[in-house]
């Protein structure tokens, strides 16, 4: 019944729940690397900066919601 409803991956989510902090830190670290590559290392196009800002907002929103 659960596999028919698409809930078969619910147990996988429960297993990964203990790594939520590590995934959050990884997301923040990757945003830091992308900030360096977008703003510091090279002068990038305005669309790259816009997409970086959107990704920061989305990541911060998800991390705030899950906290």
Quick gist of this model?
The chain has one domain. It is 81% helix and 0% strand. The protein has helices at 2-5, 10-16, 20-41, 46-66.
Describe the fold and architecture.
By secondary structure, the chain is an all-alpha fold. The chain has one domain (18-66). It is built from four helices and no strands. Helix 3 (20-41) packs antiparallel against helix 4. The longest helix has 22 residues, at 20-41. The chain is elongated. The mean pLDDT is 83.
Question: Topology, pairings included?
Answer:
Layout: H1 2-5, H2 10-16, H3 20-41, H4 46-66
Helix-strand pattern? HHHH
3D shape: elongated
| Low-confidence runs | none
Helix content: over 70%
Q: Whole-number radius of gyration?
A: 17 Å
- Termini separation comes to 31 Å
State mean pLDDT (0 to 100 scale).
Answer: 83
Enumerate how many helices there are, as a single number: 4
Secondary structure: number of strands: 0
The share of residues in extended strands comes to: under 5%
The secondary-structure class comes to mainly alpha
Instruction: Count up the domains.
Output: 1
List keywords for this structure.
single chain, 67 residues, mainly alpha, 0% strand, elongated
């Amino acid at each position: 019944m659960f596999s028919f409803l698409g809930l078969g991956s619910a147990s996988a989510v429960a297993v990964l729940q203990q790594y939520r902090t590590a995934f959050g830190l990884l997301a923040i670290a990757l945003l830091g690397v992308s900030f360096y590559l977008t703003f510091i290392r090279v002068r990038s196009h305005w669309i790259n900066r816009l997409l970086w800002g959107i990704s920061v907002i989305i990541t911060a929103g998800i991390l705030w919601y899950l906290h």
